[in-house]
Amino acid sequence: NNLKFAAAVEPENPAIQAKLHWSQSTPSTIPSTIASELDTNPFMRVDHPAVQKYAGSADPVTVMAVLREKKNSFGLGAGPAK
């Protein structure tokens, strides 16, 4: 799921950890807010050092491409791709 992927990208992000914990007690995490997405969605955080480190690049286009590739294969039995 999206939050588990976000946690794999940014395991030290407290907003992601809090939302992941919250999501375990609620049947749906939608709707969300833009503010929440800016804090927890790696695709909206391509300029953050932790996301850039995960992607191995500071170039926003490259970071986005790496995130998309990793997300596409995330949870397909191979575990979080790094």
How many separate domains make up the residues? Answer: 1
Discrete helix count: 5
Strand content: under 5%
Q: What share of residues is helical? A: 55-70%
Radius of gyration: 12 Å
Q: Give the overall form.
A: globular
Mean pLDDT reading: 89
Helix/strand/pairing class, anyone?
mainly alpha
Based on DSSP secondary structure assignment, what is the total number of beta strands?
0
Give the uncertain stretches in residue-range form: none
> In this structure, how is the largest beta sheet organized?
none
Order of helices and strands: HHHHH
Distance between the first and last residues' Cα: 17 Å
InterPro entries: HAGH_C, RibonucZ/Hydroxyglut_hydro
GO molecular function: hydroxyacylglutathione hydrolase activity; metal ion binding
Pfam family, one: HAGH_C
Keywords: Hydrolase, Metal-binding, Zinc
Structure description:
This protein has 82 residues and is mainly alpha-helical. It has one domain. The chain has five helices and no strands. It has helices at residues 2-9, 14-23, 34-40, 49-55, 60-73. Helix 1 packs antiparallel against helix 2. The model has no long low-confidence stretch (mean pLDDT 89). GO terms for molecular function: hydroxyacylglutathione hydrolase activity; metal ion binding. Pfam families: HAGH_C. This is Hydroxyacylglutathione hydrolase C-terminal domain-containing protein.
